[in-house]
Amino acid sequence: KNQVEQSPQSLIILEGKNCTLQCNYTVSPFSNLRWYKQDTGRGPVSLTIMTFSENTKSNGRYTATLDADTKQSSLHITASQLSDSASYICVVSARTGYSTLTFGKGTMLLVSP
Amino acid sequence: DAGVIQSPRHEVTEMGQEVTLRCKPISGHDYLFWYRQTMMRGLELLIYFNNNVPIDDSGMPEDRFSAKMPNASFSTLKIQPSEPRDSAVYFCASSYGRGTGELFFGEGSRLTVL
């Protein structure tokens, strides 16, 4: 069964600090991995989409890494800001298309002043 | 572009009542998705359409749920009759592509069934 596990479930960090969120998956065959940011009361917004051949992808202060061999991804946030407080959701797509998008339950990040 | 537009943003209803959620996808997108989000289960795909045709409705929980897409700019998700366990946030999303395109989500409709 395709699964996506994220850790930690929640995290509190001080403003200005860095943090790393983890995503492990068992989706097969693998097509791409996506990270979404979901602010409270809003819809998810895409941060990055990574394919099999991409190891690292950046979007401003967000850097995602992918190790397709170990089926792990991480999202690193640099110099955190209060606006980074949100849920971060890892989504993995199998090669068979949209029906097989498997969502993690997210990591809730709180950036404290 | 205004993005994916959903209405209503909040709906409170009593058990047994009919609920209709509405979605306007981004113009030009050929895929439309309905998702449900709860704390326990996260985001779950209910149904998706390609060019207004339902492709996969295996996530629709039961016959009480139905979805339509009469044209490229409008879709509805209906629950009849509603039950308290249907309480959740329902998201509509749209995309352009062949299964790997980026999903653009609406702001969601928060449903509370008393």
Please tell me about this protein's structure:
The complex is a heterodimer of chains A (113) and B (114). By secondary structure, chain A is an all-beta fold. Chain A has strands spanning 4-7, 10-14, 19-25, 30-38, 45-51, 56-59, 62-67, 72-77, 86-94, 102-103, 107-112. Helices cover 0% and strands 54% of the residues of chain B. Chain B is built from no helices and 11 strands. In chain B, strands 2, 4, 5, 6, 9, 10 and 11 form a 7-stranded mixed sheet that branches. Chain B is globular and about 40 Å long. In chain B, 36% of the residues are buried. At the A-B interface, β4 and β5 of A face β5, β9 and β10 of B.
Given helix and strand content, the structural type of chain A is: mainly beta
Q: Using only CA atoms, what is the Rg of chain B?
A: 13 Å
Coarse morphology of chain A:
globular
Number of strands of chain A: 11
Average the pLDDT over all residues of chain B and give the rounded result: 94
Radius of gyration based on Cα positions of chain A: 13 Å
Structural class of chain B: mainly beta
Number of helices of chain B: 0
Q: Give the overall pLDDT of chain A as a whole number.
A: 93
Low-confidence stretches of chain A: none
Beta-strand proportion of chain A: over 45%
Q: Sheet bearing the most strands of chain A, described?
A: 6 strands, mixed
DSSP strand count of chain B: 11
Largest pleated sheet of chain B: 7 strands, mixed
* Low confidence ranges of chain B: none
Helix content of chain B: under 10%
Write the SSE topology.
The complex is a heterodimer of chains A (113) and B (114).
Chain A: E1 4-7, E2 10-14, E3 19-25, E4 30-38, E5 45-51, E6 56-59, E7 62-67, E8 72-77, E9 86-94, E10 102-103, E11 107-112
Parallel strand pairs in A: 2-11
Antiparallel strand pairs in A: 1-3, 3-8, 4-5, 4-9, 6-7, 7-8, 9-10, 9-11
Chain B: E1 5-7, E2 10-13, E3 19-24, E4 31-38, E5 42-50, E6 53-56, E7 65-71, E8 74-79, E9 88-95, E10 104-105, E11 109-113
Parallel strand pairs in B: 2-11
Antiparallel strand pairs in B: 1-3, 3-8, 4-5, 4-9, 5-6, 7-8, 9-10, 9-11
